[in-house]
Amino acid sequence: MDQQECMRRAAEQAVDSYVRSGMVVGLGTGRTASYAVRHLAKLLAAGTLRDVVGVATSVTTQHLMHEVGIPSRELDANTHIDVAIDGADAFDSDFNLIKGGGGALFREKLVELAAEKLVIVVDASKRALGHLLEAFRVPVEVVKFGHSATMQRVVKRLEPLIRSWSERRNADGSLYETDNSNVIMDIEFSATDLDNLEAELRSVHGVVCTGLFLGMASAVVVAHPNGVVEVLT
Hints:
Pfam family, one: Rib_5-P_isom_A
Number of strands: 13
Mean pLDDT: 97
Largest sheet: 6 strands, mixed
CATH architecture of the largest domain: 3-Layer(aba) Sandwich
Strand order of the largest sheet: 2-1-3-6-12-13
EC number: 5.3.1.6
Protein name: ribose-5-phosphate isomerase
Number of helices: 6
Catalytic activity: aldehydo-D-ribose 5-phosphate = D-ribulose 5-phosphate
Family: Belongs to the ribose 5-phosphate isomerase family.
Order of helices and strands: HEHEHEEEHEEHEEHEEEE
Oligomer: single chain
Structural class: alpha/beta
Helix content: 25-40%
CATH topology of the largest domain: Rossmann fold
């Protein structure tokens, strides 16, 4: 079965299994999350679900929600999010995640920290067979002002653990900017304690957010190439 068809089925199953009428739902960013958004819209249009409101994790997702007719609300102090559905770049057996390959890590983490449950939809290749850090580079969002100096401080502080790193750039070579007008460095780390790494990165002045989502996921919905959808809890 085509990989994207597998991912579509897995995203739809996540919506069917975890979203109920009257819920506030955090909606992730990226192709996988877009399948969930479109399926949710179909269920609302058909009357299968009612009174569901979405909280977007990016400008792109906000635009998609508007396009398909999902009511939205902002994240504020009074927002209770019942469940968030999103993709990930890698996950391990403890449901620790690396996210941010699509550049929306800061808003994704804000929304998903506020959610009662976080459901991650991935294909089987995203499962880390060894250490999580060996599966994908860690995106680190940095304030644009003085970003080169901040990146050098990150490298100096964590140099023994860094195998390689780069500034994220667009296809035309220009500096990639997030929805928050920040920039991203992508870092390949050697295996190390994830909690300590997160703390070290966040301690560098100018670092806004990392792509390490530790201990946040409640379930992982895995799409396999043979069409089987596996739900890990």
